[in-house]
Amino acid sequence: MDVFLELKTALETFPFQLPLTLLLIITGTVLLGLVLRIGRKTAPYPPGPKGLPIIGNMNMMEQLTHRGLAKLAKQYGGVLHLRMGFLHMVAISNAEAARQVLQVQDNIFSNRPATIAISYLTYDRADMAFAHYGPFWRQMRKICVIKLFSRKRAESWNSVRDEVDTIVRSVEASLGNPVNVGEFVFNLTKNIIYRAAFGSTSQEGQDEFISILQEFSKLFGAFNIADFVPFLGWLDPQGLHKTLVKARAALDSFIDKIIHEHIEKKRNFNCDQETDMVDELLNFYGHHTKLNNDSDDLHNSVRLTKDNIKAIIMDVMFGGTETVASGIEWAMAELMRSPDDLRRVQQELADVVGLERRVEEADLEKLTFLKCVVKETLRMHPPIPLLLHETAEDASVCGYFVPKGSRVMINAWAIGRDKDAWEDPEAFKPSRFLNPHVPDFKGNNFEFIPFGSGRRSCPGMQLGLYTLELAVAHLLHCFTWGLPDGMKPSELDTSDVFGLTAPRASRLVAVPSKRLLCPL
Length: 520
Description:
CATH 1.10.630.10, 18 helices, globular, transmembrane, heme
C-alpha cells in the first residue's frame, strides 16, 4: 500500500486531523527511520498488539493503566511491547523481568521518562524524581535521604504525630455520624507534608498551593501528541505551552515568596526555631547549579539553584500527599470488607496497648498483625501502580530487544497480584505475611515492590510507612467503625481510579464510635 494511504488510514482513528504538510513531514521521518534501521540485526521486540502504520498503538492509549496493561500481559506475557507514535513502550508484569530491570541492569534503566509538560514544570528536570541518573542526581538523592526524610530530622516525624492527634479529635467530633474517611486522611497527609516542607501549621496558603498541585497533576497526565511525534513540539498543535507557562508562573509566585521569607529568617536566625525542608535545602543554595566531586562534605559537594529547590519541594508534595492518603484509605476499606481481620487487628491493639491509653510510637514494633495489614494493603494497592523508567542505551530483557529511549513501565500492581508468585492473589489476607518465607518489600523480593527497588526506589519510604502505620493504628484503636445505612461489607466498592496513584473510585464513608476508655 502506498505510504500516504497508510497514513490516511491510520489517522482516521486519531482524535483530530493534521494538515497535509505535517503528514508529509511525518511520512518522510518514518521513511528515514526505516532506512537507518536497514541492516541492523537485533533481538526481537517483546510481543505485543500489532500497531497501525505511523501511529502504532496510539489508538490503545486508554489501556495504559495498571489494569489495562495487566490484562494485555495475560495475552502477550510478562514483557510486552507497544509503539506509541515514535515512542517505544515496554510493560513489565512479572518478578523476573522486574529483577532484570531494577537489579541486573539497573544502570541502564535508572533514568525516568519525562513528557514535554513534566520537563517544563520541573524546570527542565531540575528535581530529583525526573533528573537523569548521574553524579548530580546522586547528590540530590543524598540530600533528600539525609536532610529531608531521615529519622534524625525530628520535625518531619513530629508533624506526623501532631497531625494524627488532629485527625483523632476531628473524628471524635463526629461520633455516631457518617464521616468521609477519604477526605479526613487526605487532609491529614496534606497538613503533614505542608508543615514539613514549609514549617507552617497555619491553613493560610494551603488552598492556593493545593490548587497549584492539582493543576500540575492534570498537566502531567495531559495528552500531547508532540510527546509521541517529537518534531511536532515546535508547532505546539494543541496550544499546551501557554497553559504550562501559566501553571509554572503560579508556582514561582507562591514558592519564591516562601523562599524569600526563609532567607530573611536565616538572617535573623533564632536557634530555638524549628527548621523545615526549605531551610534544609537553602543550606545548599547557590546562584548556579554546581557539583564538586572532590569534597566528602555534603554541604560543599553540591549547590542548588532556586529552580532545584522549587522542583524538589514539588516532588515531596506529590510523592507524600496522595500516595500515603490512598494507602490509609485502602487499609481501612479492606478491613471494613473483612470483619474477621478487623476484629483481629483491634484485638491485638487491645492486648498490646490496652484500652486505657492511645497508641505510642514504641508500640508499633509490637503490633505484628497491624504490620501484616499494612503489607497486604501495599501488595494489593501499591502507592504508585506503574513505576516508570527509561533506557539510557539499547538493552535486552528476557531475550527481547529494548531500544535506547524506551519508556519502561513496571506494573507493581500486576506483580503484586501475580498468581505465579502469590496464593489466592485477589483476596485480602494479611495473615499471609505471618509466614517468614513470604516476600518482603525491604529485601530483594521483586514479587513485592510497592516502593520500587534499586537506584530509583522511594527515598521517603520510612516516613511514609511511619505515617501509614501510625494513622491506621490510631483510627482502629480509638474508634469502632461501621458502614452507613445498613450497608454490608461485601457491598463496599473496591474499584479504583488510575493516575499518579490508584485511589478508591469513591471515598470511604464510615460511622465511628468511641472505643477507648480514656479521653481522646
